Amino acid sequence: MIHLSELSWANLIVNCSAVLLLIGIVLHTRIFRKRSGQDDRLYFLMTVITMVMAVSDILTYVMDSSTFALAPSISYFFNSVYYVIFELFPAFFVLYLIVRRNPGKPLSLKKGILISLPAIAAVGMIIANWFGRFLFTVDPIEGSYTSEALYPLIYVMPVLYGVVALVLIFLLDKRVLWLYLVLILVKIFVGRFLWDVSSTALLFAMGLTFAHIHVMGKPIEHIRREERA
Amino acid sequence: MITVAPVSVATVYSDLMAFILISGLFYMFRQYRLWRNPEGDRIFQLLCVMVMINAVSNGFSYALHHNAVNLPQPVRMLLPTIAEYSVLLGAHVWFLFVEYKLYQSMDRIRKRHMLFSIPMVILLILFVVNLFTGFLFTVDEHSNFVWKPLFAVITILQYTYGIVPVGAIIHYIRLHGRLKFFHLTPVVMPVVVSCLFTLFSVYSARSFGFTLALVFMHFANANYWRFTDGESGFFNSLYLEEELSRKRIGSELPFSVDNPKKELFTILRTELPKDAEIIRQTEKDFLIIMEKGDAAAIQFLSTMLEEAVSEYDEEHPEAPIGFSVRINSEE
Known about the structure:
Distance between the termini of chain B: 76 Å
Helix content of chain A: over 70%
Largest interface: A-B, 46 and 48 residues
Largest sheet of chain B: 4 strands, antiparallel
Strand content of chain A: under 5%
Distance between the termini of chain A: 67 Å
CATH class of chain A: Mainly Alpha
Shape of chain A: globular
Number of helices of chain A: 8
Strand order of the largest sheet of chain B: 4-5-3-6
Number of strands of chain B: 6
CATH topology of the largest domain in chain B: Rhopdopsin 7-helix transmembrane proteins
Strand order of the largest sheet of chain A: 1-2
CATH class of the largest domain in chain B: Mainly Alpha
Radius of gyration of chain B: 26 Å
Number of domains of chain B: 2
Structural class of chain B: alpha+beta
Order of helices and strands of chain A: HHHHHEEHHH
Helix content of chain B: 55-70%
Radius of gyration of chain A: 19 Å
Oligomer: heterodimer
Number of domains of chain A: 1
Order of helices and strands of chain B: HHHHHEEHHHHEHEEHE
């Protein structure tokens, strides 16, 4: 039996919105994916993992509200998937911005792995939580989710990558910087001080939307400059 | 002190997100000068403004739910009135936008605008009367909505205005083939899902649904501008680059003209089969590509175009188009 609380409904709506936004992004970026550029592939990867993140988040809330025997284990699994993507997405976004900053110079695999190492370590930490339960836990009987003492560690790598990403966005095109700042501030202030709505996947999806509009805008600006010249 | 009730959090949050997303969209399209078509864009901007108004008024009115607000009744009813009327106005502008996108004619809209606007004016009067009488809906002492049976008519109208343009798009696609870069599903799906959700639950996610539809309509527009030639409406060389990278071209016919003018574009549009894609590589150089087709099909196309253009040239010897096939095909 599933009984969703009012706040779970809010999470469900926000995450479903993220999924709908991402489905549209996947469809509309088809023509860009055909170029098979490194940035296009990274963008597609980010879109897919954000979709997985949103679906995992939906399932954790559904499982938290379920009473069948396997629900706590499934909830734990999807919580782990959610956090793994939470750690990986910012690293991929930094890689994406680096590739966008250097058009025509693909990033080597070695360099890519080196930049992603902190995120990989953070993923290791999420996997290690399975044995120690030092970050979060899901009650095996009631299925309720609880943050543990070292939970803030989850935020360390995304925050670091976030700062690097903001610097890269500033260097790439400072006109879009404030949009990303607004997204981050909304996440921090609304999430921390108003309502605990799990909106990370939606905010990632919105960040991807702005990134795509930026990609669409660039060639047109380039063509216009040529026309003016 | 106003406290947002847990039941309103979902609505207020999705309205806030809708507002941020649409503001970002608006800002980026202004910054990158992605507005290319002054007439169509004006309608689109109006549509964005309508959704913004809906998000703000709906968000605030839901935030006030379960709160006792010490204000006169008409003032307390103002926010839900704006929220509901903006849905109708938004649907009306969406109607106009679809009309424009399909037929690219402001004259057509001007002619029909009055007809479309009359119901809006009548509804505005009804909404104003409702502020003082509450015959459609009202708000109780805790700022919660109380719907009256007559409001069902307004709801039906809101959805009718939303559904008719979708029907028009489907009808157009059946008549003229797919719209370039436009995907109907991501535009319609969020609207349908959010409207059903709003109808059958205590939450209202309509403005976010509308916002998603706007985002994808904009994506379609931007892709269209990015990959098409402004003068002829055919694909540009950038599109050719994307197509070549896919290696999916079955056959191609490169040709040049001495005098590229509107009449040539009309000939190309009317004479060529639907699966042929026309690319304007430079001002005078064109390329027709087809996913399928062989040398015989290309020869047939070439002869057909040559005949159509020479017929035009004979009729207009003072300014002929001057058609010639370029011999640089790989076939």
